[in-house]
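User: I'm new to structure prediction. If I give you an amino acid sequence, what do you actually give back? Let's try with this one:
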Amino acid sequence: MHIVYRLPILPALLLAVAASAQISEGGLPPSFLPEYASVFSGQLAPPPVQLAPPDVKKLFQEDSQQPEQTRFAAPLVQVDLGLDNAGQWTTLPNGDRVWRCAVQAPQALGLLLLFDAFRLPAGSRFFAYTPDKKKVLGAYTDKSCLPAGNFLVGILPGERAVLELLEPVGVAGQSQIHLNRVDYVYDPAGLAPSVADAAEGFGDAFGCHINVNCTQGQSWQSEKRGVARILMIFSNGAGWCSGSLIANTSGSGDPYFLTAHHCQIIGLLPNFSMWRFDFEYEAPTCANPATEPTPKSVLGCERISYRHETDFLLLKLNQIPGSYNVYFNGWNRTAATNSLVTKSTFIHHPVGDIKKITLDHNPALIFNQIINWGSGFGSTPAGSHWSVVPEEGFYEPGSSGSPLFDQNKRIVGQLHGGNLDTTNCKVLNSWFGRFDQSWDQGADATSRLKEWLDPTNTNALTQNGYVQPAPTQISISGNVQTHWGTPMANVLVSLSGDATAEARTNASGNFSFSNLPAGLNYRVTPARDTNDINGITTFDLALINKHVLSLDTLDSPWKIIAADANGSNSVSTIDIVEGRKILLGLNTGFPAVGSWRFFPALTNFPNPYNPFTGFPGGLPPEFLQFNGVQDNVSDANFKGVKMGDVNNNANSGG
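Assistant: Good question. You get back a string of structure tokens that encode the predicted 3D arrangement of the chain. For your 654 residues, that looks like this:
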């Protein structure tokens, strides 16, 4: 039977979807690791917090009355879970703490987790995973956190999700985690072959799609790096669209991103700060991979401009790391004619699946008729769209917003919708909003492109694409705290290498070096050598003596380093003697070390009971080295150790 699948209304799906990756460092939660097996073996897993499922029948009823919403998931109500009112804490042998919490919503196909507070101090690591441990997301670290403090951890399949936070002893109590929303996937809608896959975009697209790294995509290896799938968050659900980074006439790295206007209205109240953009989500070869690729993701954007008539939406993404190797695609705003685009190509993410390519070897034609897009989406004027009927490839919901490239690989429009024959996997028609009309036909800068993509008013008709520009200047900043987590003010921080400078930490322990030439090598070294007696008492000497006699060993590697008063990379009675000399005023300083020593905050001691092993020279380096710096560095963080003070009562300011 011949079936025509019409998609002028909604070529983007409103559903809660799987987050495959974010800016994360990988690894495994502490409770998975064999070295902590004895710690967790005696503990039961935390009982899940039960979340009441929605009235699924009612949701389906609502969806049938509002076809433009087409939800696959809905937020649950009354979610209020954090470190202080849910889960359980476990203390590891080195003093670090682990918080675990589980949530469960019966019969959910998947759970999407949204946080209104998500702040991690340096060294903390956060994970989310399924109870069977087959799906693990994270580790998320301080590098993953957004300035606004919100966060998204994309869907874990099934009805239960486990959260796990590792908080080092030196930053105890500084993490902020608050889960305020969980989206419940209730309807697979036949998009996937099994319930297990229903919450995933991966593998859900029709088999007639062409992966971007097949033969047809070989000449598009630069342009594909600008295309990303979008996980969109709304007040009533989430969904997929596609889009592309787009160049400007200044050749700058402003992360402008072009997609479709209708993508922002498939749900209610879009939360742009939680939209996620997945680059490089693609098969490494032509064949569909057996395992899901890990994208390079950016969380959060700002809406810049949009226009209904040509269905464009321009966003500005949060900072894109230089290591992502993205590409800013060029454009052509020449007044459209039926001979302007002799052949066309679009690159997209159907139903949130891996990146595909579709090709039309014939000219794109101006569609000189009004298009009625259906309930909630209105109509668009005659002549506002390109008509494209590709010979190779396909598209589906989720492809919306994908860039239409001309024969010179410049963007001339973005996908709005069309008609599909799903029985024969054939595109009957597709319509793309015209870029040339989006350029300057809006009433002001909030409804057109020219002010953003031609900031110096060159009036250029075309712009070629370019690789992400390397910055000419960068900054290096960080924080200095005691190893027990108190900010250290007035610490001298020295910059050396290809440039030299000095800075002092402020009251919060922060420092910064700005306007540094990019691409060079820098070393950051903190120092303080004043008031050696600060924090030293007879009680410290007694504790060190017990440690030497193995009567009561010091309970953290940082305290053991503090006990090494003579800098010999060991703790002995000589250290007690040196501490006593300071206490009695016989010596004004330690013989071989300063009053404080500083080590990178993320230092991981291979043997926490003997921190003087595992590094060249015994201890870890007391500096951070950055070579060939191309991006701003914001995590040059250190922990300070007050020599002779093993009970953490030194004044951090002295």
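You can read the tokens as a compact description of the fold. Here is one thing that stands out. The chain has eight helices and 40 strands.
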